[in-house]
């Protein structure tokens, strides 16, 4: 059948593949092409009509072994897999279609060009009488062509398109009629044994042991677990080890620092890198706010940064000689923290207006706040006056991005 004669509409193709998808998941697939690690092609081709096509079980996963092998004579043999249309066969085919500048042969790489044909097994009927356009999976990848407009053929080269092999990587497009559509081979590779990205062997398209090629997704300092990493920017090609093991490994530029361990600084007010607390521990050293040393995010010796403590008032003392006092000791200011605001003494029995604190629902006076309300953008509360003093309504605006019902 000529390629140009396939006139299936998109709607019919979509309905047809929806039906096939259902069938392939409804029935088991006893047809198995022995492959997996023994076949030297891997990766995925992509069709905008049928989605991903896996060329090796080491790429597609699962318990069924399959794959496509590039042989020493350039021929391709074996089976690829599509979750939408099932098996796609390379090699062992006959009765090829004709088409403009196509090659009536099985798939073969010659002079860096992939020529010939592959075939989706679902385009054939293997149940007698033939052709019945059967509704069960084709488990033998043989039989007569269907008669409903699709025969499963995929042309690997023709006028204006084709697939090439450069080094270990395929590029270009094959054509599978209006049903399969264009098939992009840029994700398919070939090498001496595909292996995996965690087998401690340089294979497939790797440029180093378990690194490069298909294993080189991202870097060891991108803050993402990718490639063959076993943790974020760690393990696999990035080296085993951690940011607290006392050794320089992975992408570290020094012992437990640099690379994945060097997120932030020791003065950014955030626990990051290998710190065990905010700007403290790990690469920032073990430090306190009373060690007579400027460390962590301190701006001076035991001062600033994490050492800042704002002062707050104690309760009013009992009335003595007509006066009451209070002290800024609950807690006292330290590390550059602000002192308490307001008077430290008052006449006994004198009225005092309520006083707002900088923190919502708190009052600077000894009274407890009332009428506490939280709206989406602010907090509102009332600090009562004492001994006839005025009640004061207080508000605190919520920071941008803080939304609370």
Describe the model.
- There is one protein chain.
- This protein is mostly beta strands.
- The chain contains 3 helices and 21 strands.
- The chain has helices at 10-26, 57-60, 177-180, and strands spanning 41-47, 51-54, 68-70, 76-82, 86-90, 108-110, 113-115, 117-120, 124-125, 144-145, 153-155, 157-158, 161-166, 169-175, 182-184, 188-190, 323-325, 345-347, 370-374, 378-383, 392-397.
- Strands 1, 2, 3, 4, 5, 6, 7, 8, 11, 12, 13, 14, 15 and 16 form a 14-stranded antiparallel β-sheet that branches.
- The radius of gyration is 36 Å and the shape is elongated.
- The relative contact order is 0.07.
- Residues 1-37 have low confidence and may be disordered.
- Residues 121-146 are annotated as: Disordered.
Beta content = 15-25%
Q: List the total number of helices.
A: 3
User: What is the overall pLDDT average?
Assistant: 77
Assign an overall shape.
elongated
Distance between the termini: 67 Å
Structural class: mainly beta
The rounded Rg comes to 36 Å
Assign a percent range to the helix content. Answer: under 10%
Low-confidence residue ranges = 1-37
Sheet bearing the most strands, described? 14 strands, antiparallel
User: Which quaternary structure do these chains form?
Assistant: single chain
Give the topology string: H per helix, E per strand: HEEHEEEEEEEEEEEEHEEEEEEE
Number of strands: 21
Topology of this structure?
Layout: H1 10-26, E1 41-47, E2 51-54, H2 57-60, E3 68-70, E4 76-82, E5 86-90, E6 108-110, E7 113-115, E8 117-120, E9 124-125, E10 144-145, E11 153-155, E12 157-158, E13 161-166, E14 169-175, H3 177-180, E15 182-184, E16 188-190, E17 323-325, E18 345-347, E19 370-374, E20 378-383, E21 392-397
Antiparallel strand pairs: 1-2, 1-15, 1-16, 2-4, 3-4, 4-5, 5-8, 6-7, 7-13, 8-11, 9-10, 12-13, 13-14, 14-15, 17-18, 19-20, 20-21
């Amino acid at each position: 059948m000529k390629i140009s004669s396939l006139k299936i509409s998109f709607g019919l193709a979509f309905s047809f593949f929806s039906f096939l998808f259902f069938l392939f998941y409804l029935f088991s697939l006893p047809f198995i092409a022995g492959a997996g690690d023994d076949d030297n092609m891997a990766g995925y081709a992509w069709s905008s009509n049928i989605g991903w096509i896996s060329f090796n079980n080491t790429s597609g996963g699962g318990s069924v072994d399959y794959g496509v092998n590039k042989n020493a004579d350039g021929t391709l043999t074996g089976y690829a897999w599509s979750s939408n249309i099932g098996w796609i066969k390379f090699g062992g085919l006959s009765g090829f279609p004709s088409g403009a500048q196509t090659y009536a042969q099985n798939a073969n790489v010659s002079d860096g060009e992939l020529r010939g044909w592959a075939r989706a097994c679902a385009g054939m009927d293997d149940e007698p009488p033939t052709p019945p356009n059967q509704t069960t999976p084709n488990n033998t990848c043989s039989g007569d062509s269907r008669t409903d407009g699709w025969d499963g053929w995929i042309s690997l080269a023709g006028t204006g398109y084709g697939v090439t092999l450069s080094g270990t990587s395929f590029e270009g497009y094959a054509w599978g009629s209006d049903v399969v559509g264009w098939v992009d081979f840029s994700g398919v590779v070939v090498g001496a044994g595909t292996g995996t990205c965690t087998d401690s062997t340089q294979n497939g398209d790797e440029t180093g042991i378990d690194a490069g090629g298909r294993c080189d997704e991202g870097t060891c300092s991108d803050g993402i677990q990718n490639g063959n990493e076993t943790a974020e920017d760690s393990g696999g090609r990035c080296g085993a080890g951690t940011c607290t093991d006392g050794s320089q490994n992975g992408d570290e530029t020094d012992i437990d620092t640099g690379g994945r361990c060097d997120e932030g600084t020791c003065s950014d007010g955030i626990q990051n890198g290998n710190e065990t607390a905010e700007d403290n521990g790990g690469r920032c050293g073990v430090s306190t706010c009373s060690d007579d040393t400027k460390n962590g995010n301190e701006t001076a010796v035991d001062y600033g940064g994490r050492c800042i403590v704002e002062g707050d008032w104690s309760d009013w003392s009992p009335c003595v000689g007509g006066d009451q006092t209070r002290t800024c000791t609950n807690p006292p200011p330290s590390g550059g923290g602000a002192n308490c605001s307001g008077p430290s003494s008052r006449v006994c029995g004198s009225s005092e207006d309520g006083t707002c604190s900088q923190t919502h629902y708190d009052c600077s006076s000894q009274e407890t706040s009332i009428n506490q309300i939280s709206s989406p953008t602010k907090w509102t509360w009332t600090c009562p006056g004492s001994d006839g003093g005025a009640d004061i309504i207080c508000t605190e605006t919520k920071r941008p991005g803080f939304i609370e019902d």
